[in-house]
Amino acid sequence: MGKLKIVTIFLMFNAIIAAKSLNVADISDSEYVISVEHSIHVNYGCQYPITYKFKLDNVLENIQVLKKSGKEEFWRAMTKKNGQEFYNGIELFRIDTSAKVAYVSASFPENSDSLFVKFQDGKGNPINTNYRGITKYYDNRKAVVTASIDDCAPWFNPQFINCVEKFQKHKIWITMGIITESCDNKGTWGALQTLLDSGYTEACAHSQTHPHAPYGNNLEYEISGCKNAILENLDLPDMFSRNDKEYVYSWISPHGEHNQRIDSLLAEEKFLINRLYTSGYYGISEWDNEKQIFNPVNMSIEMGNTSWESSATTRIQKLNSCFDYAYKNKGVYHFMLHPQSVDWNKDYAPDHLEYISQRKDVWYVSMGHMYLYKLLSDHKYNQVATTEINKSDYVKTDKFKLYPNYPNPFNNSTVLEFQIKKPQQIEMSFYNIKGQLVDKIVRSYSMSGRHKIHWNASDLPSGIYIYKLESGNKTISRKLLLQK
Fold first, then answer.
1. Going from the N-terminus, what domains does the chain have, and what CATH number goes with each?
2. Dist CA 341 CA 410 (whole Å)
3. CB under 8 Å to 304, separation ≥6 — which residues?
4. 325 touches 53 (CB < 8 A)
5. pLDDT digits (tens, 9 = 90+) for 77-109
């Protein structure tokens, strides 16, 4: 019987590359496994669909895209859209026939860090594709509209509810900044729950008492207390939850004031973004790898008539031109308002919502989900080995094949696949970065073909490991990353 023997290996890595939060590897020319770093999945839920771009060799009328949550699960056909319908934040695939590109928007399963995607025709035959990355915006949209409203508090309940309902009517997502300390009064929590249940709304923390910075000894009360009050009193929508855990992604700084202590606690509480109050911003801020939160962000413009902010406006021409600027430059139109400052009996507010709403090439999204998408699409999270693999990365010999493990990075266990051309015994050994043997698996196979081994590394520390197969004078080795 032939034997695959594994020998000790010590690999020196010349550089450690900052990896993306996601790992996309192809199992074949038509099937892919997409994995999210485990701690990100736990800390942020990751239930919003991310759009992946695939190049097609040929465009067929009966293309199907299927998805499943685990290697042993059943495939499920995804919904196909043609781009002529109005939709946002749903799982789907869309084919751009002129560019020979498929856009696949999918979210991660609640109980798995990986999802599987494959392409086939109507008869089940595989369709060759090449992975080309993640689109900047959901479904490859041209621009973004997101909105936020400050000062959700009992004393503004009627105005607040009226404002949010106007946005919901136009299917524009709005992030609701909640001042929590007095929300038990006048049925505020119940009113907020009704708004959340009606859709197009995000629950956002806006402090307990709306103080000026710094918060002194009340720092944790204002930030942690506000977040906990939201989680305890509201049932958040599915996209803001995973299993039994719910997520508050966004913080709006009272008076637009913040400092390093505030930002540090926001990061510790796993907020993604802190919205300030200066106007004229049309982008998405970048991740601060040291603080572990996105840099504080400003808004584009405030709609309304306020006595405390000179840039707030009721001029419809100015409001519309700000949106036009974001749209033309493929940016983010982030406008905000205070409920007490908008007069809906005047034309500027309803006319502006009508002007910017229900455009099929615009992504309408909550502030929190916009930054969750950014986190998963191009954020450099930790210093680890590169995780993006395409089909040219497969190692092949005329005797056997060794495929990339999945998921990678992984937490505790991963799957190793290989192919043999005749019955034989194999040994698979694992080494740490110092070349020290940490584990070995020996198995005999009575059939040729493709096989897999589940490797459990729960007793090993996080780090880079090497696994290697050898047959005669040919060897194959790969690296994998354990992250706990």
1. 1-17+396-484 (2.60.40.2550), 22-140 (2.60.40), 145-367 (3.20.20.370)
2. 50
3. 312, 313, 314, 337, 338, 341, 342, 349
4. no
5. 999 999 899 999 999 999 999 999 999 999 999
